[in-house]
Amino acid sequence: MGEHVLVLGGGVIGLATAFELNKRGHQVTILEKNVCGGQASGAAAGMLAPFSEIGEDPDDFFQLCLDSLRLFKRWQQEVKAASKLDFEYSESGSLHAVYHEADVLALETRKSWQKEWGAEAELISGNRLRQMEPLLSKDLIAAMYYPEESHVFAPDYVKALETACRLNGVIIHDQLETVEVVEWQERVALKSKDNQTFTGDRLVVCSGAWSSELQDTFGLRIPVYPIRGQICAYDLPENDIKHIVYTSQGYFVPKANGTLVNGASEDIAGFRTDVTEKGIARLTNWNKKVFPHLETRTPFHTWAGLRPATQDGFPLIGKLDQASHVIFATGHYRNGILLSPVTAIAVADLIDESKIYGPLASCRPERFS
């Protein structure tokens, strides 16, 4: 029989970690203040696109994202089988489109180092670009095509993870309002607002944007900040956009249900998740320059979620030096959906002490202290 692991937080990272630990025979309990997947996880556009999103250099964060992309095909099949639920997983490929010749050179530079990491990158332009996406503005002169990049429908993926956990014996306590870590140095004990006490052998902290609230508890600097991301969606039943499309201003993700997701405008608003006219205007003011037909369309849905950003852009993943039974898995910013498989597997490996995943060296949770 495995250990009893308490997972603090029921977002996509907490659910994925619980799912993987449960598969390996551990007893797992998730403690969630609100509802599972109710913040950044369920609000995400669901992109699995490390080549498009990371254009600077192949650091450990890029390695994390790339490894997770390549885990996803098998991972999503396992989640579907365990949950008995289906959700959209589309290997659509992506187009990173540009307007100027100078930007084409930047794409070529990006392609040169990404090729070393197995990217099937292809620079396309002219008639070929119009054939792939006929509705793109003629002002866009070229795009880098990444056939490997994919996306999932995030709300259904998160729901499937939660269902898989519940069906397979993970205990989930949600809507607890508050959860306090009362003991962690020698043993693990947490208490909810209604005075329920939860004990276990291990604690995995997956608190997302709320992680900084634990700084005093653990005596650590935990610089994780909530960044509000606002997104809109268009009803396009003709389904005539086929790829994820990136530009310097944002992205578009076509979904199988006939909607086009357009994001994201970001701002710092504390823990507010309201949608603002200004935030959505940042999207609607430029998106018609990518897809001119949006000029006559109005978004049918707008929403916002909180993204847990760290001070250096790397998530916090790893054991605490002074208490190896406490593991952090938080601060994934815009990449929680993408990084859910690799984070879950890395955390489970740490608990099983089976191996150490190399890129975690840059993700030490105590690196700011």
UniProtKB/TrEMBL annotation:
EC identifiers of the protein: 1.4.3.19
Pathway membership, UniProt: Cofactor biosynthesis; thiamine diphosphate biosynthesis
Highest rank taxon of the organism: Bacteria
UniProt GO MF annotations: flavin adenine dinucleotide binding; glycine oxidase activity
Pfam families documented for this protein: DAO (PF01266)
First-tier enzyme category under EC: oxidoreductase
GO biological-process terms attached to the record: thiamine biosynthetic process
Domain spans labelled FAD dependent oxidoreductase: 5-350
GO cellular component, one term: cytoplasm
UniProt keyword Oxidoreductase, yes or no: yes
Keywords: Oxidoreductase, Thiamine biosynthesis
Keyword presence, Cell cycle: no
Catalysed transformations (reactions): glycine + O2 + H2O = glyoxylate + H2O2 + NH4(+)
Classification via NCBIfam families: thiamin_ThiO
UniProt name for this protein: glycine oxidase
Lineage: Bacteria, Bacillati, Bacillota, Bacilli, Bacillales
Gene coding for it: thiO
